UniProtKB/TrEMBL annotation:
The keyword rRNA-binding applies. InterPro entries: Ribosomal_uS14, Ribosomal_uS14_bac/plastid. It comes from the Bacteria. The gene is rpsN. Binds 16S rRNA, required for the assembly of 30S particles and may also be responsible for determining the conformation of the 16S rRNA at the A site. Belongs to the universal ribosomal protein uS14 family. Part of the 30S ribosomal subunit. Contacts proteins S3 and S10. GO terms for cellular component: ribosome. Keywords: Ribonucleoprotein, Ribosomal protein, RNA-binding, rRNA-binding. It holds the Pfam family Ribosomal_S14. This is Small ribosomal subunit protein uS14.
Length: 101
């Protein structure tokens, strides 16, 4: 199991990303729009830099919902590979069967 502080830190990051998502998206669209004047794009980039670092979506780490493990994460299930195998073998994940041949 991952450290509780790491899990909590990631949750705080998710809240900040949600809070600044609209502002970040608007500024990102302005900064990437090549039809606008260069000075407008620069101002948008400077305003993006004023957003807290943890408000950036790339700072959020995908973690397993049961253990908080960051490695071997499957997005479709929200679990890491170890938990996916355990729950799959127990038959607790609908539609997932262990194959054998």
């Amino acid at each position: 199991m991952a450290k509780l502080s790491s899990i909590n830190k990631n949750e705080r990051r998710k809240k900040l990303v949600k809070k600044y998502a609209g502002k970040y998206a608007r500024l990102k669209a302005i900064a990437d729009d090549e039809s606008l004047d260069e000075s407008e794009r620069l101002i948008a980039r400077l305003k993006m830099a004023e957003i807290p670092r943890n408000g950036n979506p790339t700072r959020v780490r995908n973690r397993c919902t049961t253990t908080g493990r960051p490695r071997g994460y499957y997005r479709k299930f929200g679990l890491n590979r170890i938990e996916l195998r355990d729950l799959g073998n127990k038959g607790l994940i609908p539609g997932l069967t262990k194959s054998s041949w």
